[in-house]
Description:
Mean pLDDT: 88
Strand content: 35-45%
Number of helices: 5
Distance between the termini: 116 Å
Shape: flat
Low-confidence stretches: 1-37
Helix content: under 10%
Radius of gyration: 52 Å
Amino acid sequence: MYFCNLINLYFDTYFCMRRFLLLAIIITGVQVSLFAQGTNVTVQSLMGTHIDTILKYHLAGEGVELTNGKFNNSPGIVTDDQIGTFNRNNNTQFPFATGLVMTTGAVSVAAGPNSQTGASGTAGDYTDATLQQYATNTVTNCAALDFDFLAYADTFAFNYVFGSEEYPDYVCADYNDIFIFLLTGPDPTTGLTTTKNVAIIPGTISATNPQGLPVSINNVNGGIGSFGNAGPDCYGGTYAAYYISNGTNSQGVQYNGTTVQLSAEGNILACETYHMHLAIGNVMDYSYDSGVFLEGKSFQSSVETHLLMRDVYCLHENIVFDYISDEVDTVYVVTPKGDTLWNEPFTLYDADVSDSGLYYLYAHSALPCVDLWTYDSLNISVINTFKPDLGEDQWLCTGEVATITSNYDENSAGLHWNTGDTSSSIEVITSGEYILNVEVMNPATQTNCKSSDTVLITFWDLPQPDFEADITSGCTPVISRFTNLTNTASDTISCAWYFFDENFNILDYSSEENPIIHFNSAGNFSVKLVITTAEGCKDSITKWNYIITAPQPELDFIATPEICMMNETNGEINFTAVLSSNVIDNPDNNLVWRFGDGDETLNETTTSHTYSSWGDYVVTLSLTTESGCGDSVSHLIVIEDDLIFPNVITPNGDGINDVWAIENLNTDINPEDPDEYRHNEVRISDRWGKVVFHTKNYDTWAKDGQIHMGSNPFTGDNLSDGTYFYTFIYKGKAKTTQWHGSITIVR
């Protein structure tokens, strides 16, 4: 601790002791060979090499174009000793023969064997801002490789191994060196630009963790280290299957532990430009180096074509060329005879022995960024056998019987139906795929050749007709909407509706699926629905006496008079009912008169009613038959009375005679009435003839001692006491009248 204070480090005791141990190693002169021989991995620095050369010759594989390279954010010549090449030599345990290595210290530290404790090498002081975002503490000695790439397929991948001197003691400790492989570009699903880390532990992507668990010291290890602590971000030993412990003096690489070979991969859009950011760095220190090994030329996005089929076929078989290929715009097959198959599915029908030979399938990439042909070949043999013929597929309706015949006359052949039968023909009554397998020995090749044929027998289900109507009873005319409720698996059906009267006479027919039928006469009606499916299967249903209708009455009445003055009839109006022939003189009729003033009379065809006061009365006559059918009709009865004009008003606010209210004035005006009944106009002048009040449709009136205030009552406001003269014109429904008189204002 005294030494730590001397060098003035502002770290905790734990950090200081790690550094002291490293310094002691350096002082004692421990050396690391740059070119360790034998079964050790050797490394060579690429400092002084152009970054584009590094990408082209050491990383880029098939189907990709790598451009715009930078190392530690600098294009051109590499000036840092943190990137180099490696060679495994004779070490077959290391997964990659050659490739690139990026380290937190000098690349020379990565070379085997593992002969140092806390091995570290002098490195630059580059700090990668992007890497810092993914670290839990300060990153140092960063090495970052950036480049753009364009791929010829919709996926890409490259292989890598991560190693570190932090293993195993500092697993889940604060000193957790970090690396990331960031892919930036358009998401294949959304098209939006996204960034994600593709250095992910296999199998950790899930619905709850769509980004997966990154490869790191805390995540991939053999267990929590002696300086580590369990926590939510520590996976001590959980993913030990991906970890390799590299003991002291072990051959291979210097690092105490490495991952197994892992693959960084992702889904992309072909011919689009993406950016990769590969970065590694120390965390909270400048020692205990880490490195990541990238397999040489493994960064690829290959466009491949493969034939996916067997290489032996029997005589008369159809050879279908099944293949898998990335996006293509032209594909064709060349046969051994020199014929070209252009149309998919590429099929050689009824193969003969002479069709044996080497077949080629050629595919041209449809990608706009590359002009590329790929191909695959397959040597196919056709051997002599015979093929049964079960005929065309059959479609029948349920209840019918299908007969399937093998049409195969080779007596030595064994016939085996998938029903278990061994006869030359079978009868079936259920839907399914029926297969006949034939086995026969080819004496020339001593090959037990098998052939088969398949026929599809489909028994269409009969439809299950049903229907309902929204109205099944009522008074004529009855308008019923019929709904087809047929249960059927057929996509298309045809309907035939038949409507019968009580004597089974067809009254109506419809081929609509959901017809609307008018029943204009009274009676009981039956309905039949016949359903035919698109496959020709038919069934029907009949509902007897389904629609029941009763006669609909019609009525009217005559009022005498309909319009009158009160003093002409003293309010008495005579009424006479007019009934239709189908209900007249029926004692079960229920006839109701409602006179509009709260009074009513029952079961009278002629009657009279006396109204006690003037007004508009809606008189309604209703009729209900014993079948529940009914009708009603209404007429407006108008009774008007002579107008009475007050000749004195006393507008003193005592509530008595404060306004000019015209007795018996009916102000119920229909604005759409072309005759303008009940319109009025009033003019009031002083004794010198000056008009002091004028309005149309004056609406302050009185009835039975009750005043009804209008919108513009005459109150004598702003007028002096005295006598004034009025003219009132009123167009009533009973008569049109003009009145003249005087009004005296007294306060």
